[in-house]
UniProtKB/TrEMBL annotation:
This is Metallo-beta-lactamase domain-containing protein. GO terms for molecular function: N-acylphosphatidylethanolamine-specific phospholipase D activity; zinc ion binding. GO terms for cellular component: cytoplasm. It comes from Fictibacillus phosphorivorans. Pfam families: Lactamase_B_2 (PF12706).
């Protein structure tokens, strides 16, 4: 009887935690859902991809993955903390030159047309609702302190997964940010975390927004969303086109390979730089995360000039060696004649530079 009581108490505590803790965000309201029902890629309470996207989660499909997981892989994460390039951003450092700084995984600072834009700023220590249980950041620390960042003109999110939209990061950043631009449904999370609705712009696929002097186009991706057990695909996922006066950048977010890349390239390419997902893949979920060779093809499809591989170098979310994504991407890029830039975490790269960072820092 005591064991049953303890088990019941634990289950009840977990349920209350999921229901009431703000880290899980906010589900769309009934009125919002009524609006979503008018959208072509929304059906039966969920957003959908442009093409059929199977994500097999049944026991038979996942058994080989479970066996692979149980066998273990000592190279899934680095043996020691990855190197950082110290980064300092002051009020006086901003200018018209387009620059990007990578902070690991998919987090970037884009400086363009005298504006500062953060892309998927996940600055937490682990991509989890309970960070002390998640896979910790490879670099241990960030190359800066969030508290030391100056005012940010714009924060852009691709979707609401924990490795992209982080509760603790928003709590630290929200008072520094002028405007947030997010896909449909993600505003609810931000509002629950204390961001005023007037500072949030929500977008559907192909919506065009001009804010902070920058043009943003919310473009499709092939993925999914959700922060708890009951909100699968309740919010939209996307990629982004960012256009300044002299520069055009494509940010892939998370996406399996699909025809949307060519469609984006035909409508908005060519791009001076693409930030293209290449990591946390597996054959079993290739429909929602590109294989590295597909990363290079997606870059070609959107008509990119230079590519920075992203979604690697910070966290372990799959079973491959932690360096496999960038190594396989470089091999495929060389075969296809694609120029790849590989900055260190914290390193700033000028978008139109003729001397791009190509050091193999992860091999040291």
């Amino acid at each position: 009887m005591l064991v049953i009581s303890i088990l019941f108490t634990v289950i009840l505590a977990i349920m209350f935690f999921i229901i009431f803790h703000p880290v899980f965000g906010q589900k769309p309201s009934k009125n919002t859902i009524q609006h979503y029902k008018t959208i072509q890629h929304y059906s039966n309470g969920s957003f959908m991809n442009q093409i059929p996207t199977e994500m097999a989660t049944d026991f038979r499909s996942m058994l080989p993955v479970l066996k692979e997981f149980l066998r273990g892989n000592p190279n899934r994460q680095p043996k020691e903390a990855v190197p950082l390039k110290p980064f300092q951003l002051s009020e006086q450092s901003i200018n018209t030159e387009a620059k990007v700084t990578w902070f690991g995984h998919s987090a970037f600072l884009l400086e363009m047309d005298c504006k500062r834009i953060l892309l998927d700023p996940m600055f937490g220590r682990a991509p989890s609702p309970v960070p002390w249980f998640g896979n910790k950041r490879y670099s241990k620390d960030l190359p800066f302190r969030v508290e030391d960042l100056p005012e940010i003109d714009l924060v852009v999110f691709s979707h609401d997964h924990y490795d992209h939209l982080d509760y603790s990061s928003i709590k630290k950043l929200k008072h520094k940010v002028k405007q947030f631009v997010v896909p449909l449904g993600v505003a609810g999370h931000l509002k629950r975390w204390g961001v005023e609705s007037g500072r949030i712009t929500e977008c559907n696929w192909w919506d065009k927004v001009e804010t902070a002097g920058i043009t943003l186009i919310c473009t499709p991706a092939r993925h999914f969303s959700g922060r708890s057990l009951s909100d699968r695909n309740a919010t939209l996922w996307c990629s982004w086109v960012l256009k300044g006066q002299l520069s055009k950048i494509y940010f892939s977010g998370d996406s399996g390979y699909g025809p949307h890349f060519r469609e984006i390239g035909e409508n908005y390419g060519p791009f001076d730089l693409t930030l293209m997902e290449c990591g946390q893949y597996h054959e079993k979920w290739a429909a929602i995360h590109k294989m590295p060779e597909e990363t290079v093809q997606a870059h070609i499809d959107v008509r990119g000039k230079v590519m920075i591989p992203i979604h690697w170098g910070a966290f372990t979310l799959s079973l491959h060696d932690w360096t496999d994504p960038v190594e396989r991407t470089l091999i495929a890029a060389d075969e296809q004649g694609v120029e790849v830039c590989t900055p260190m975490i914290g390193e700033t790269v000028a978008v139109h530079s003729n001397n791009l960072s190509k050091q193999k820092w992860w091999r040291k």
